[in-house]
Amino acid sequence: MQLEEAGVSRRLLTTEEEPSFDDFVRARLPQLLRLGRALTGDEHRAADLVQDALERALPRWRVIRTDNPEGYVRRIMVNRNISAWRRARREWLSERPSDLLGTDALRATDTPRDEELWAALRRLAPRQRTVIALRYFADQTEAQTAALMGCSVGAVKSQAHTALTRLRELIAEPEEDR
């Protein structure tokens, strides 16, 4: 049965109204890079993670563009990052992150206190860092974070609590004790 026969009109987006993949990338790239940096602890791996996620999202763009493309890309990023942990079984983090990739607007927002936070984030376990990245950098709910990570809401709460406790300890430590 055709939609029109059922009394439902189906309006297709015109080319001008259709959100393009390039527009999406231009608008959301800084946020995706920040999430990637929070997930991986390294700006170069973050850029690779974002690029990989965008490459995987592009073939599905016609399907995801009207639903929730950023959520789809975030999910790819989390899944790919978890796959990298499993393959490597050990995570290598950079010693000191430099400013974010070529984005002057984001570079201006990093203060010395932010560098201290990034350093503390790099010292968290990968799952704890993922929870913090999704909950506080990507502003996801506990349920959304659990769905993205493929775990229970209770696990997200537990990981967040442990991670926040550890972050408080790390930031409170004098630098020479680290």
CATH class reads: Mainly Alpha
**Strand tally, please?**
0
Q: How confident overall, as mean pLDDT?
A: 78
The secondary-structure element order is: HHHHHHHHH
Estimated helix fraction: 55-70%
Structural class: mainly alpha
CATH level-four homologous superfamily name:
PhyR, sigma-like (SL) domain
Describe the fold and architecture.
The chain is mainly alpha-helical and 178 residues long. It has one domain (21-177): Up-down Bundle (Butyryl-CoA Dehydrogenase, subunit A, domain 3), CATH 1.20.140.160. 64% of the residues lie in helices and 0% in strands. The chain contains 9 helices and no strands. Helix 1 (21-40) packs antiparallel against helix 2, helix 7 (126-137) packs across helix 9 and helix 8 (142-149) crosses helix 9. The termini are far apart. The model is unreliable at 1-15 and 91-108 (pLDDT under 50).
Question: What is this entry, summarized?
Answer:
The chain has 178 residues and is mostly helical.
Descriptive tags:
64% helix, mainly alpha, Butyryl-CoA Dehydrogenase, subunit A, domain 3, 9 helices, 178 residues
Per-chain topology:
Layout: H1 21-40, H2 43-57, H3 61-64, H4 69-88, H5 104-107, H6 112-122, H7 126-137, H8 142-149, H9 153-172
Helix pairs in contact: 1-2, 1-4, 1-7, 2-4, 7-9, 8-9
